[in-house]
Design brief:
This protein is an alpha+beta fold and 139 residues long. The protein has helices at residues 3-6, 52-65, 85-103, 107-117, 124-135; strands at residues 9-15, 18-25, 30-39, 70-76. It is globular.
Length: 139
């Protein structure tokens, strides 16, 4: 049996995609969450407008407060370890996206600024179609 399935604890979280998402904890201090934590991959920002980023950050804060040693992200670069630092990295990406969405004048400007800040993250298509185009719908 997979270590996360052996003994699990659940924590209720709020995230953009559902208000009833649960994180699973294994006895080894590893946490898995369906979509709140990303690891080396550009985040899907489709539901980030209208307070969605703040809800997402609140979910990340809930996970961080549990002090996990390892975090298993559904969306991840397979070359990266399941390190709990991905919580803070996800948070930083969201904070930058929120700030840049308020200061950029176009979807292209936002996209270029995020690409410059996060050049090594996978899936730039997600940043354009589920980020820039959502935050700047007239693009």
């Amino acid at each position: 049996m997979h270590p996360l399935r052996a003994r699990q604890r659940r924590a209720r979280l709020t995230e953009p995609t559902t208000s009833r998402a649960a994180a699973l904890a294994g006895t080894d201090g590893r946490w898995a969450h369906p979509s709140a934590v990303y690891n080396g991959v550009r985040q899907f920002l489709a539901e980030s407008a209208n307070g969605g980023i703040q809800k997402w950050i609140k979910a990340l804060d809930t996970i961080a407060a549990l002090h996990p040693r390892r975090v298993v992200a559904r969306h991840k670069n397979p070359a990266l370890d399941d390190d709990s630092k991905s919580i803070g990295e996800t948070r930083g990406y969201l904070e930058d996206a929120e700030r840049l969405s308020q200061t950029s004048h176009s979807a292209l400007e936002f996209y270029k600024a995020m690409m410059e800040r996060y050049p090594s993250r996978l899936n730039p298509t997600a940043l354009w179609f589920w980020g820039a185009r959502v935050l700047f719908p007239a693009a």
